TrEMBL record, chains A, B:
Key words, A-Z: ATP-binding, Ligase, Nucleotide-binding, Purine biosynthesis
Any single biological process term in GO: 'de novo' IMP biosynthetic process
Any one GO MF annotation of this record: metal ion binding
Protein's UniProt name: N5-carboxyaminoimidazole ribonucleotide synthase
UniProt keyword annotation of Membrane present: no
Stretches assigned to coiled coil: none
Pfam families on file: ATP-grasp (PF02222), PurK_C (PF17769), RS_preATP-grasp-like (PF22660)
Stated family: Belongs to the PurK/PurT family.
Function: Catalyzes the ATP-dependent conversion of 5-aminoimidazole ribonucleotide (AIR) and HCO(3)(-) to N5-carboxyaminoimidazole ribonucleotide (N5-CAIR). Catalyzes the ATP-dependent conversion of 5-aminoimidazole ribonucleotide (AIR) and HCO(3)- to N5-carboxyaminoimidazole ribonucleotide (N5-CAIR).
Xref: InterPro entries: ATP-grasp, ATP-grasp_carboxylate-amine, ATP_grasp_subdomain_1, PreATP-grasp_dom_sf, PurK, PurK_C, PurT/PurK_preATP-grasp, Rudment_hybrid_motif
UniProt cross-references to SUPFAM superfamilies, sorted A to Z: Glutathione synthetase ATP-binding domain-like, PreATP-grasp domain, Rudiment single hybrid motif
Top-level lineage group: Bacteria
């Protein structure tokens, strides 16, 4: 009844998990050293300045079952929890998503198409990758990196030295062939402790300087086969990992079909629309899975858009005046490039949705990629 | 941006206001002496054992704008707030709903039909009321009283002495003619600081021993005229009171049309369905109004049912296994007659809704009035 969930991290994802979990009678602890983190008001916070072992153990004492809202966390934290109490998703899910090479190997094992790649341990490896995979070449760190950080786009073999200078310290790296994609899609799925699995409709994602600007869900002009293919891919990953909780798979839609890009073992920015747009949100389904409860319907009755608020806050009233717009602020201070909140808007049709998005773009100090013609 | 709302009371209504308000970037203080009150985890709690003036002033210091989640609060609290900071709904709304005679006079002024009544200050007044209004007669305290408490159903003139013995100490009382109603309905409306007003669809309410068992929304088999009449009545009340926030009007549907029963200057149990069933819930619209923000749509796309969990908790999994059922627990311990939570379930049609209600009735230890045939 009064099960408590411990969340590694206290950002907006933890905050939205808690907002979804309280109605289920759950309570929350967070492990985050920032006293003003977005989740701070919604549970008990643990974690001192250097994330000492004492503070980690106190956090583990405080809750019954654990999860995380960010995959780039020290594996030792998750192992310390797993030694004493259940943690979902498990260490295997984390190990795959923390390492792009592991992820690529998993895609290959499961016959999930993905960009060709090479492991890079030297500048020579880089030159070899250019001749094997062609140009341009996307070079990334194997661990860490998100929102476009830790990446280098190699357009010319001459840039190999510059690329190595920029990223070589983080080697091994991964070099991937450059994919000419029609658009980026993502699929979010959830798997319960009993193995029950549900899929949200594919989201179409638009970026601006590497940061997600907005998502349209269900992705427009999608044939049913694409949704089913994406479900088959993510389903095989969920099953292989014995994953419990939400998992996200980012995909490229290309002329030759879907290519898997990367996974995130958690609720995802491209799924925030589900709070209003689906019967049961990704946050509620994640906490249901972690708490061992039956999953809710992932059905969407209408098109939705999720629009990120980046860097500067709009006037709340300007947002809420737009029909069926919902505002989600994370309680953060303004800073360039920072995710401060998001807006969900739903409509009865895509053209109506586009009109509402356009009105919201006018209300935002930083309209990101919203003004790009579709 | 970081506006804080102070709520008098820390029960489930305050809890659900807070859950709706955090996404809008609001934070919350509660004035409730119970350290384990349902709102405690969702904001800063004030109020010592005897609700001292010091604790009230500290509460007033802590927030920017105020509201309440229960109308039976000392008027001096609201006056103390109003002397320093804005409080919505205002003192006028509170004065009407706290006193059944004031309420009856307001209905009369605004030409809102209501049961005939008499003010009762003595046992003789009671006998006179029997001859004027007929039998049975519903005798109520003028102030306090909810969930059927503080009421006496006088079936026989002989019971006048017993009735006076039971309630006389709380005189003045009010005696109302007994209404043969087809069903009880309620309408919930919200008015913003700009005067903008929105109405939720009428709810059909079912009681069990004076406690709300469940509500069906929109009330089935309703002609449009009834909805519009109810909107006209509540609209005139909102306007007359200069009300800001949610207001509820309970009504009887009779052979001769709608009769107003009573008002509540707050979010209402019969409106809990709106969290999932309406575009913008009564809780979000209430906090939007209190925060001076534009209101959200009160539209319901499908039939919903709200089912109270009274006295004993069901197994959460049994509830969540029912398609499109959502669970809302308040963090309270079990006690006979206590509202511990509610369930919302939606469906595409009323027959499908009935089937889901019937499955939920099976999951509840105390199915209240759910097994009554409709």
């Amino acid at each position: 009844m009064s099960l408590r969930i411990g969340v590694l991290g206290g950002g907006q994802l933890g905050r939205m998990m808690a907002l979804a979990g309280y109605p289920l009678g759950l309570s929350f602890s967070f492990f985050d050293k920032a006293a003003d983190c977005p989740s701070a008001a919604l549970g008990e916070r643990f974690g001192d300045a250097d994330y000492s072992d004492e503070s980690l153990q106190a956090f583990i004492d405080s809750a019954d079952v654990f999860t995380y809202e960010f995959e780039n966390i020290p594996t030792r934290w998750v192992e310390a929890i797993a030694a004493r109490k259940p943690v979902y998703p498990g260490v295997k899910s984390l190990a795959v998503s923390q390492n792009r090479l592991n992820e690529k190997r998993l895609f290959a094992e499961l016959n999930i198409p993905s960009a060709r790649y090479a492991e890079i341990r030297s500048e020579d490896d880089l030159r070899r990758a250019v001749s094997d995979l062609g140009l341009p070449l996307v070079v990334k760190t194997v661990t860490e990196g998100y929102d476009g950080k830790g990446q280098f786009l190699l357009r010319d073999a001459e840039q190999a030295a510059a690329c190595w200078a920029a990223l070589g310290a983080s080697a091994p790296l991964i070099a991937e062939e450059f994919i000419q994609f029609k658009r980026e899609l993502s699929i979010i799925a959830v798997r319960g402790q009993s193995g029950e699995t549900k899929f949200y409709p594919l989201a179409e994602n638009h970026h601006n300087h590497g940061i997600l600007s907005h998502s349209i869900v269900p992705a427009p002009l999608l044939d049913e086969n694409t949704q089913l293919t994406a479900e088959r891919y993510i389903s095989s990953i969920l099953h292989e990992l014995g994953h419990v909780g939400v998992l996200t798979l980012e995909l490229f839609e290309t002329r030759h079909g879907l290519l898997a890009n990367e996974t995130a073992p958690r609720v995802h920015n491209s799924g925030h629309w589900s709070i209003e747009g689906a019967h049961c949100s990704q946050f509620e389904n994640h906490v249901r899975a972690v708490a061992g409860l039956p999953l809710g319907s992932t059905r969407a009755e209408k098109p939705s858009a999720m629009i990120n608020i980046i860097g500067r806050h709009p006037a709340s009233a300007d947002v809420l005046r737009v029909t069926d717009a919902h505002l989600h602020l994370y309680g953060k201070t303004e800073r360039e490039g920072r995710k401060l909140g998001h807006i969900t808007v739903t409509a009865d049709s895509y053209p109506e949705l586009e009109m509402r998005i356009s009105r919201l773009a006018d209300a935002l100090p930083n309209p990101m990629a919203l003004h790009l013609s579709r």
